[in-house]
Amino acid sequence: MTGIVGPNGSGKSNVVEALRFVLGEHSAKSLRGGRMADVIFAGSSKRSPLNRAEVRIELDNSDGFLAKQPESIEIIRRLYRDGSGEYLLNNKTVRMRDITELFMDTGIGRESFSIISQGRVEEIFNSKPQDRRGLVEEVAGVLKYKKEKQHAQKQLDETSDHLQRVADIITELYQQRQPLEEQASIARDYLDQKKRYDHFNLSRLVLNIESNQAKHQDVLVQVEANQKLVADYEIQSQKANKAMQDLQTQQSKLEESLDQKQNQLLEVTNQMERLYGQQKISQQDQAYKQEKLAELSQQETNLQAQVRDITAEITRVQATVTDLEAQASDLQRKLTNLKAQAVVSPTDLRRQEEVNRQKTLQVMQTEANLVSQLEYLKREQAKQSDDLVADQAALKEIDALYQAEAQKEAQAQTNLAEIEGQHAQAKAKEKASLEATQVLQRRLEEQEKRYYQANDVLKQAQTREETLKRVALSHQGYYQGVKNIMQAQKKLVGIIGPVAQLLQADQTYSLALETALGAQLQNVVVTDTQAAKQAINYLRKQKLGRATFLPCDALKPKRLSAHQLEVVATTPGIIGVASDLVQINVPNPVVTAYLLGATVIAENLDAATILAQKLNHSVKIVTLQGDLLASGGAMTGGQNKQAGMGLLEQRNQLEKLQKDVGLMQEKLATMQNMGQKTRQELEVQQAQSKQATLTVVDLSQKLTQAQQEHQLASVRLKYQAEQRAKLLANNNLSDDFLNDYEAKLHDLEAQLAQTKQAKAELSQEANQLQANLQASSASYEGALKKQGEIEQKLAVVKERLTSQSQRLADLSKQKLQLETTLAANQTEVANLEKVSPGPTEGKLQVQLDELEAKQADLQATIAKLKEARTGGKDEQVKAQLQVNRLGDLQRAALDEQANLAVRKSQIQGLLKNDLDELANSYAMTYEAASQDSDLNRDLAYVNQQIRLLKLGLEDLGEVNLGAIKEFDRINERYEFLTKQQDDLLNAKEQLIQSMDEMDAEVKKRFLATFNAISASFENVFPQMFGGGYAKLQLTDPDDPLTTGIEIMAQPPGKKFQTLSLLSGGEKALTAMALLFAILKVHPVPFVILDEAEAALDDANVQRYAQYLQNFDSKTQFIVITHRKGTMMNADVLYGVTMQESGVSSVVSVAVKDDQEERN
Length: 1159
Hints:
By secondary structure, the protein is α/β, with parallel strands linked by helices. Helix content is 71%, strand content 9%.
């Protein structure tokens, strides 16, 4: 174990790259360069650059590891700055390939496992399973087999190329050989058959023309009768459609009448709803009026009672006043008498006492009067206060009711406005919905009308299509033999079909192609000659007629020469070669070339004539109008009065009809979907219209109710406003009274206080005077006393009289107020009675009865209209059935007419073909041909001979008398190349066999080596990891040649998993374990490890180094490392340093010897 150590950049890895270089590495990138010249020393500050790089390696082969090589092997590689280089093996110049083959399958090559770098380790665990199989292949020694297989594959490819070229030449010769062989045969047979064919064909044409003329006349009679029948059905259909339209018109009128009556019914219903609302409002108004009148009557009764009470009080007070006036008069009279009888006091004292007494009486009278007035005012004030409190409470209640009624009236107004808006919107929506319904109804009627028309057209087209299909399936217009072959197609093998069925071309070319091909349209294309023979034997055995067959493997294409093609391309008015303008649906294109490869299509006769002259009448030319210029100069053209329908035209019409029917069916389906969609929209719209009408009716009822509620709320609000105004007036009046009373009370109380003060002063003065009058006489005193008593009584009576007079005035005023209120009440009653009650209940009921009768009439009319509409629909259905029946009869007649037209066209086509053939082939008219006395009248025999002869002549084609010599020359070369082809096929088979043997050997060696490496890996892995388990698995065991290799491992303490799921260090150690396992299976003389253990930790580095130390002594390990554990286990260490810039130096140390010396 040799170690190479040194700092980074010192050149340690150059040792590995030098080894790769000398072993044949040609990738500059693998050598850490941009180009190969980068490995040459570029110089330094002290050294000049060199012009070459050279590596020399000496190998000890004394153990014979490299077989057939000397004991010492020296390899030198030189690379020069100009890019050239050389290899030397034991001082002999060799190729790089020789070096590669020397080390192939030895494990020592430049890409072998003997050079292991850190990148190589990463490549193992990062590569795909498919890429890992290269390690096993190198160990297995199968690379040389793979190289040999690549070489064999290259030889196989070259052989296949040779075979392809030879096959192309053989195909070309075959294509030349076949027509030449046929032309040689035709040249010997042509003249003999042509004469006999003309004789029998002339007889056939005359007999066919006679027969077809009779058939044509019969068909004309049938066509005329059928046309009359079609015309009758057309008239009946028109009448039925007219009746159908009349019914539809009547139905439309019924619908309009029904809509009108339903609208009238809706209007009557709305009027009834309005009358019901008016009736309800009238009833509510009457109830309110009665309630109000009752309330006013009660108030009037109360007021009258109050007036009566006040009147009685006034009467009582008046009586009291009268009585008091009488008492005052009596007392005044008594006082006057007493004064007359009294003794006048002679002294001043008595006069002063008298004055005092008079003043006292006056003050007492004033005091009594003031007290009486004060008591009366207090009573009136209390009463007015009670009345004001009651009125204020009533006013609060009225205010609350007024506010409630105002809110109700405002809410009713809002509701009314909202419902009016909703009603207007609903009416507009109803109108729009009805209009949309009418639009959809008209659209649906128009769509149904167009649908029925399109359906009629479709049925006619389908009838025509079915007729043409039956004609095509029955192969009408084809020869009997062709028809029988096609009917037995399933029984026979290789039958492709008649040319007329297989030919695909633009319809513009149909007439030209029918003219060019003629009877060849009925040729039957078959896959090969064997199929043609089988079909001919079938016709012969069953005696079902004759037919011409075109075997794809035997036909020879007809082509224009290069010169002819150039003339065709440069001549104006020439469309092109017919084979380029058509397609025959067969696998082999030779059919198209055989039939039309030598036929040219021109736009018109003038262009065709010019081309024929340029080509010296050597090519068949047809025009779009059906003119024919045959090779040789013959010209055919013109037109019959009644042109028949050829096979191509018949098929083109069928294809066109099929396309048209498909398009019409799609269009009809679209129309049906549109109609269904419109019908669904109509149903939805009708439902929406009905809902809109119901919404209008509902909103009309709500509108009437809202109007009634608003009117009632307005009346109630007005009543509450009037009541509130009255209470406010009463409150204002009571306030005036109370203010007046309050002012009077203040005045009276002030006067009373002054009077009491004066009375006290006078009483004091009287007491003083009384004391002074003690000496007065008893009589005088008695008189004076009595006079004073009378005067006092008189003052009291006068005071009471004054008080009662004031009371009488107040009662009169109060009575006047009550009478005013009573008059207002009576006025309001009169006003209520004068209010117009509106329509009476009886009038409203009469109007409702009239509307109900009108509603019943309208409902009955609507029922009758609906019944009539139902009956009309039934009639309409019957009429539609009649129209459909007549349509079916008419279509059946039209189908028959189409069949007759087809039959007529077929007969005309047959006549045309026979007359054209008579004119074109024999330049004769029917009249002239029918005069020939040698004509054979046995049509069956004639047809039989003609079929035989025609088949022979048609197969002969154009005759080339010089074809025999040319055929011999081509045939000789063809046979020579065929033999060469057989030799190449044998060589190819041997190469394939050798490659199979190589694959078998590779499989065997690969599996054996894989099993050995896998077993070795299972042993090495636990040694490297100190435990665990690992194995190799094939990704595709069934395919050892391509299978990949998956590495499964279970380090100690981990689960068994794929390599990609391990940690970086585990991956690296696992990869090195695999490399060591490979070395166990396939030991190599030396292994270079370039920092392979860089990703390992110290413990794993120690295991790695010890494993290397304990490895087989036959393998030399050269380790480039930075790790101490690896260095410690090396036997020899080489230190690489760069003491001089750009130049590496090597120092060696024998580590074992050094350790022993130290020990």
